[in-house]
Please model this.
Amino acid sequence: MQMDQQALRELLEFLSSSDIQELKLEGDDFRLEVRRNMPAPQAVMLPAPAAPMVAEVAAAAPAAAASPPPAAAASRGDLVEVKAPMVGTFYRSPAPGEAPFVEVGSKISNGQAVCILEAMKLMNELEAEISGEVVEILVENGTPVEYNQVLMLVRPS
Model:
């Protein structure tokens, strides 16, 4: 097994956003041990700040000029952002050809899977932290996402 700098960076980035506390990896010409005692991040869904959300909507408007604005655009302050807890690829359904976990308008409950984030060939189900209604899904299926990127907006119930 060989590991180049890019693969090492990706592995370390994945580990920093996971709750893995210890990892040992050995190859033909290397040995890697990572240990940490940091608490894993708990919050995945955070309330949307009113002012930055307006700026994001304004910045996204020219790029999405072909699609009509969502009906809830005027009241975005009451929405909760579902954010990516890690870098990976966003998938809306559990497998190709299957129905998506959620659609716009779907009611979700705390602990319900809302999508999958694939990182380093591992499929990680992202669970809702609150109950509510999915108002908008901001990422296309199969799209790479960054850490802390907003994936969808939920109106809490």
